């Protein structure tokens, strides 16, 4: 049976993901703290917080928080999402960032040469993740990096009906290898979401590495073209 492809417009973000798509000041602060922690973690594997400034494309930018944080590090960022609903809100909230509607499963309309592709919690939503990852490969200059995160494949962990492609870490590694990536690193990291609501300093110590798939342990994937 063919997997259903969801439309990530207003009814989605006002329904299942109402807490993410409300763009309130409180929620923005929580997401900012959350993704500061995520970026601190991925910086251990791909340097994004210091050194040479990069040309970056983010797929599935959703609320635009990651694109904004990367821009504050001095990088030139193109934030993209399949949702015109979210992109319209992002442009209003962060007018200094370049946002546009883009499906990761479709090629960019122009020739691109990015240093880094970022896609947090995106590939599990794709109808054809192999195609999406291949398109990401084409976006990169030689030697460029991709950073992905996805949900755990442990049964019962994910309850989101739009997670139509949940795979094992080894399967994701295989897909990236087939797309042409090398130097692939796959890690699980423990995340405690609610702690970020109390204080931003939790973003310094969380997430941390874990081998357990049973705690909230998203899978992070790093690879080079």
UniProtKB/TrEMBL annotation:
<dbReference type="Pfam" id="PF13489">
    <property type="entry name" value="Methyltransf_23"/>
</dbReference>
<dbReference type="InterPro" id="IPR029063">
    <property type="entry name" value="SAM-dependent_MTases_sf"/>
</dbReference>
<protein>
    <recommendedName>
        <fullName>Methyltransferase type 11 domain-containing protein</fullName>
    </recommendedName>
</protein>
């Amino acid at each position: 049976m063919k997997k259903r492809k969801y439309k990530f417009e207003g009814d989605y973000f006002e329904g299942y993901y109402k807490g993410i798509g409300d763009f309130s000041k409180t929620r923005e602060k929580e997401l900012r703290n959350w993704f500061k922690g995520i970026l601190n973690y991925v910086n251990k594997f791909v340097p994004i917080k210091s050194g040479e400034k990069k040309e970056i494309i983010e797929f599935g930018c959703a609320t635009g928080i990651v694109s904004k944080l990367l821009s504050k590090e001095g990088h030139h960022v193109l934030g993209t999402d399949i949702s015109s609903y979210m992109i319209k809100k992002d442009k209003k909230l962060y007018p200094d960032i370049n946002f546009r509607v883009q499906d990761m499963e479709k090629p960019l309309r122009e020739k691109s040469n990015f240093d880094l592709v970022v896609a947090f919690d995106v590939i599990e939503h794709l109808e054809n993740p192999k195609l999406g990852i291949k398109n990401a490969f084409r976006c990169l200059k030689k030697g460029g990096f991709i950073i992905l995160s996805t949900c755990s494949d442990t049964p019962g962990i994910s309850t989101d009906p739009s997670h139509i492609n949940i795979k094992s870490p080894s399967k994701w590694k295989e897909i990236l290898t087939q797309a042409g990536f090398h130097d692939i690193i796959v890690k699980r990291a423990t995340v405690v979401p609610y702690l970020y609501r109390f204080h931003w300093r939790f973003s310094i110590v969380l997430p941390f590495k874990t081998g357990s798939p049973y705690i909230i342990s998203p899978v992070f994937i790093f690879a080079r073209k």
